[in-house]
Design a protein that fits this description.
7-stranded parallel β-sheet; Rossmann fold; globular; alpha/beta; 2 domains; 41% helix; 495 residues; 20% strand
Length: 495
């Protein structure tokens, strides 16, 4: 299809939300290709591009189904936000979010994906479900009965060639009519991460018959002896310019710094699933809080204390009355590290509790890749909170702002670092947890978004689903100061 014809098709498509120029460009390059990679930095709108791509393919009669695979922290967003917000209004979808549930209502919902009468059948699955027979079987059934676009969001989740779910997704991908991968950082730990991501699209795209021939081409291998056994380890990389040229044929790389059309602030939510231990602790604390409030006038300080305890549980800890802290198993740190993998350049990480700041610093400093090498290291992170001395605070800012320093992550709390300092070296701000004070939230946002900032700034909120986390985030977005504007009986609604 010639370029003019492709452009005409896209311009005739009835967009629900107006695309930016870089999104239009990505669509023009990709929409009718069997395989394509959206290597678009977080905050540049790759989800919208995929939704529009999916809709255009449907309009042209090329697909009647879409299978979207994403990590747990992201996949629910496709169901609640991305598709409802961006899918063209003239398309009537049947959209189903996969869970492991076998309830009658859920089974009926699954069956509806195979009924006629809907324009486009959309199945959204988390990547972890492809480690189960149930998930694999259902995805296979869907792919065999639909002309499907199959997309893997945060595609670095399939970068490990030996992983069971990676092998399963690559096999199932052969049943799809069209394949897409989406990620802001296709290379999280090494260029070798690219192999299985591209193999999902098409095993012949890179021109290698196996991962090992690919590795031999682009990695420098060193012989080492471990316990009398000779092994090869990766000592470096080569021919990366050649690899970059190959990728250009089937991908679009978008960086925020090159998108002059982006809005100044971009907000993203990453969902965190409570562990079983957290769910039990949360339910117990919620019941106790409601029992305490029942029958008496609820005062703001009293309820805010109850809210804080519930909030601490969502973060993975609980401060006891005697001053000690109880650790509660949580997925929050794990989700933060996933966000960092998908983040280019420097980032600010705000946390509401000192306990969390210390855990974040430790996690970043000690994170290791699959070869057990440090991913970031201690020099990559600086901290800024109440216990940080004035001298160390000044050094932390200086290191972080220095483009030549190793300091990539600034970790602090808004109470201390949210005022009067400039952190324009970062265009990514992550809220590990939010406080209740609207002014502190707005002030902490503006540490990066101020004079001297030349990029759009992306704000990522980690939110535990179906908890007080969601209420806090929604209130802050609506510019409600929880601590001062919600009073009296209304406070019970927050618990």
């Amino acid at each position: 299809m010639n370029v003019n014809r492709k452009n005409k098709i896209i311009m005739e498509y009835k967009f629900k939300t107006k695309p930016y120029k870089h999104q239009l460009s990505a669509l023009e390059k990709s929409w009718d290709k069997q395989e394509f990679a959206y290597f678009m930095e977080m905050g540049t709108g790759k989800s919208k591009v995929l939704v529009d791509n999916m809709a255009i393919l449907y309009d042209k009669g090329k697909i009647n189904g879409a299978l979207i695979i994403a990590p747990k922290g992201v996949y629910n967003n496709w169901y609640t936000q991305e598709i409802p917000n961006h899918l063209a209004s003239h398309i009537q979808p049947k959209m189903v979010l996969w869970t492991a549930s076998s309830s009658k209502s859920k089974l009926k919902e699954y069956d509806s994906l195979f009924e006629t009468g809907y324009d486009l059948h959309i199945l959204i699955m988390n990547v972890e479900s492809f480690s189960t027979k149930k998930g694999l079987d259902f995805a296979g059934k869907f792919l065999r009965t639909h002309r499907t676009l199959m997309a893997v969001d945060e595609s670095t989740s399939i970068k490990t060639p030996t992983a069971k779910r990676t092998k399963a997704i690559l096999t199932l991908g052969k049943l799809a009519y069209y394949r897409r991968i989406l990620t802001g950082s296709p290379v999280t730990k090494s260029p070798l991460d690219l192999y299985t991501q591209c193999a999902f699209l098409n095993e012949h795209l890179l021109g290698f018959s196996s991962y090992y021939t690919f590795r031999n081409r682009y990695a420098t291998l060193l012989d080492r002896n471990f316990g009398g056994r000779k092994v090869q380890i990766v000592g470096g990389y080569k021919r990366l310019d050649e690899l970059a040229q190959i990728l250009k044929a089937f991908s679009d790389r978008v960086l925020k710094e090159n998108c002059l059309d982006l809005p100044p602030k971009i907000y993203i939510e990453r969902q965190v699933e409570l562990t079983e231990e957290q769910s039990k602790a949360y339910a117990t604390m919620k019941s106790a809080a409601l029992a305490t409030l029942r029958g008496k006038m609820a005062t703001a300080p009293h309820v805010l204390t109850q809210m804080m305890r519930l909030h601490q549980i969502t973060c993975g800890h609980l401060k006891n009355d005697d001053g000690t802290t109880t650790e509660i198993k949580s997925n929050r740190l794990k989700e933060l590290l996933k966000v960092l993998e998908d983040t280019n350049g420097k980032a600010i990480i705000w946390a509401n509790y000192i306990h969390d700041i210390e855990n974040i610093v430790e996690a970043i400093s000690t994170a290791k890749n699959e070869d057990q090498q440090l991913t970031y290291g201690a020099k990559s992170v600086v901290q800024y909170y109440g216990a940080t001395s004035s001298e160390d605070r000044a050094k932390a800012i200086e290191k972080f702002q220095d483009p030549n320093s190793d300091a990539r992550f600034f970790v602090g709390n808004p109470q201390t670092g949210g005022y009067g300092i400039t952190l324009t070296a970062a265009s990514n701000v992550i809220y590990y947890s939010n406080g209740y004070d609207l002014e502190k939230r707005l002030q902490s946002e503006d540490r990066a978004h101020r004079i001297g900032q030349k990029k759009s700034v992306t704000y990522v909120d980690l939110v535990a689903t179906k908890t007080i986390d969601e209420k806090i985030k929604k209130a802050l977005r609506k510019k409600i100061n929880i601590a001062t504007e919600v009073m009296g009986e209304e406070l019970r609604d927050w618990i």
